[in-house]
Design goal:
Blueprint lengths: L1 E6 L5 H15 L3 E6 L13 E9 L2 E2 L1 H9 L1 H6 L2 E7 L7 H18 L5 E6 L1 E2 L6 H14 L9 E2 L3 H16 L1
Parallel strand pairs: 1-2, 1-3, 3-5, 5-6
Antiparallel strand pairs: 3-4, 7-8
The protein binds flavin mononucleotide.
Length: 178
């Protein structure tokens, strides 16, 4: 199969996720084109057997590069098998309210772009204080201390469950050939 894996990221976790999936798909014998959505001008989803888009949430929104690409290519994306990997810190927890917020953000996104992903994976992201400016570092420090009292607010912490993501990705890959 020929796959497109495209991502938008702010602090790097969605790119890391995209790289991980690209390597896994290569390992399974697929051909993969991986690129940043910011560089996806002229890329046509119709040329692929399956498309994975990954992006992360900041202040309840995905990166505009994702929205721009999804809106521009909605028709083609709706015709090929797609997997949307949504990276956030809300997905690291069990708060029903936060999970409802993920549903809302996704519903607003699909309505705004016209693209309905074939499969959606809500994936826990990472806390990376070294990547934040001083204001974000202060805000995120409060947030991480509230949600994860065991975390050291001065250190990076990754919440991504790679095994769960692999299981979901393998099932999606299998559905392409099925
Ligand atoms: C300024 C800022 C705002 C964020 N807003 C949200 C949010 O609204 N909801 C959420 O679940 N996670 C939020 N996060 C957490 C990010 O989604 C998480 O850190 C993710 O791993 C970032 O992915 P990236 O490295 O690909 O940009 C926020 C993070 C930052 C730094």
């Amino acid at each position: 199969m020929k796959l497109l894996v495209a991502y938008a990221t702010t602090e790097g976790q969605a790119r890391k996720t995209a790289r991980h999936l690209t390597e896994r798909a290569h390992g399974a014998g697929h051909t993969v084109e991986m690129l940043a959505l910011a560089d996806a001008d002229g890329v046509n989803p119709s040329g692929f057997d399956g498309v994975v888009l990954a992006a992360s949430i900041h202040a309840s929104q995905y990166q505009s590069a994702l929205g721009d690409f999804a809106a521009r290519e909605a028709e083609a994306l709706n015709r090929v098998p797609t997997l949307f990997v949504s990276v956030s810190l809300a997905a690291a927890g069990h708060s029903a309210e936060e999970w409802r917020s993920l549903d809302r953000i996704l519903a607003d996104f699909t309505k705004a772009t016209g693209w309905t992903p074939g499969q959606v994976e809500q994936v826990a992201g990472a806390y990376r204080p070294g990547q934040y400016d001083i204001i974000r570092r202060f805000i995120m420090r409060q947030i991480i201390s509230d949600r994860d009292p065991d975390a050291d607010p001065g250190q990076d912490k990754e919440y991504t469950d790679w095994d769960a993501l692999d299981t979901a990705f393998d099932a999606w890959l299998a559905s392409l050939s099925g």
